[in-house]
Design brief:
There is one protein chain. Helix content is about 75%, strand content about 5%. It has helices at about 1-15, 35-45, 45-60, 65-70, 70-75, 80-95, 100-125, 130-165; strands at about 20, 30. Helix 2 runs antiparallel to helix 3 and helix 2 crosses helix 6 (about 80-95). The longest helix is centred in the last third of the chain and has 37 residues, at about 130-165. The termini are close together.
Amino acid sequence: MIAGMLGAISIILGATGLGLIPVPTPAGHVTIMHLPAILGGIIEGPVVGLLIGLIFGVFSFLRATNPIFADPIIAVLPRLFIGVAAYYSYRATIRLNENVSLAVAGVIGTIVNTAGVLTLAVLRGYLPLSAALAVAGSHGIPEAIIAALFAVLLGRVLINYQANQG
């Protein structure tokens, strides 16, 4: 149920463009589309996180407004690992504190996305390293903060919902 809901949210964010917010930087967009993949990984596991990340990647490719995301390797590949990384970072830190673990998972999922996209963009010749580092700071840091907050707030709600269903 939660997997389907998060997948549907990801499709809505991608189909409407609400998840890819245009900005005048080399990346072209800031995103909130990584949030369902992070939550899917945390709540339902790495396979669900991977599949929701795939939805994100496909929409990133289909809605590409710059050459970086018209490259399917850059648009899709890093997005597959967002929820997977979120799941394993959540599981590795859950013994500390649930809120901390959720926040860590949000940050790690975002870092995987941002670092993966920017590393591939540099390696494939779309961006110079200096531009990639600027995007990492201007986009990656705010996206990581937002992901940490949403992972804690929505993650707790979904974990409680799931606990009450079973």
